[in-house]
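Ticket #308: bound-state structure for uric acid.
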Amino acid sequence: MAKQVEGFNFEQQHGKARVRVARVWRSKEGRHFMVEWNVSISLLSDCIKAYTDDDNSDIVATDTMKNTVYAKAKECTEQLSVEEFAVLLAKHFTSFYSQVTSAIVTIVEKPWERVSVDGQPHEHGFKLGSEKHTTEVVVQKSGSLKMISGIEGLALLKTTKSGFEGFITDKTTALPDTRERMLATEVTCSWRYSYESIYSLPRKPLYFNERYLDVKKVLMDTFFGSSKEGVYSPSVQSTLYQMAKAVLGRFHDISMVRVKMPNLHFLPVNLTNRVKDAIVKFEDDVYLPTDEPHGSIEASLSRFWSKM
Ligand SMILES: O=c1[nH]c(=O)c2[nH]c(=O)[nH]c2[nH]1
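RESOLUTION: The complex was predicted; output attached.
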């Protein structure tokens, strides 16, 4: 919200970025559970005097925000999702400080996964996976909520059932039509939940972790198709749309989904020697993988009644 200050419109927020915290929980039976989070906080608060009058008396110190992350992590005696922790932090800042009108908390979870040794899940051993679970929540003093979750760095590839043809051709077009190519991407997807108040959130423990895994599965199943047959992709655009639509079709508490899918090209390799003999003739087998430059394709899809 812009404020009128000395004849100007003025907007401000302050916070602490990239606070790293890990939390371990130990079950009675001796199994350990752990998370590692990177937390960023930004507060919208009435502290204009700090900007205009050198008066910090309304400032929540960003150092205090950092300490609060550790204090709240300590208080969480049960395992919880990034979404729940973000809401808990945001709720604290908006209810504890009269000056704070709104809190924005974003968290990226590092993908530590329990290892198996000799086919048995290890009690306290973890290895780093690849894609990351993310969230951004905005909480107002009234309890009104905006909650977005996401997945980052989901690298997917299929070696066939992908093509691209019928696009505009003009004098700068070199790309041939094809019905046979590799399709590789790194999916970034975020989705907005339709919960609009911190008081109407699902109470089920780890609900949002379950949702995250379910959304990831729907995205991947749609990308790949069935295990034997697969599914033909006529373009990244078409596959991206099918993936977004599948998420909205499946999850009724998701009102908006945004998907970004770079097209990471695998270029056919054809090599001839100086006397024009083929060294390598491309037969859908030898490729030059490249990520620069790459196609960049993104879209968002929301229900008619929903907010973006
Ligand atoms: O799936 C694709 N979409 C495009 O827009 C595009 N453009 C391009 O050169 N190759 C591709 N592939």
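RESOLUTION NOTES: The chain has a mean pLDDT of 97.
TICKET STATUS: resolved
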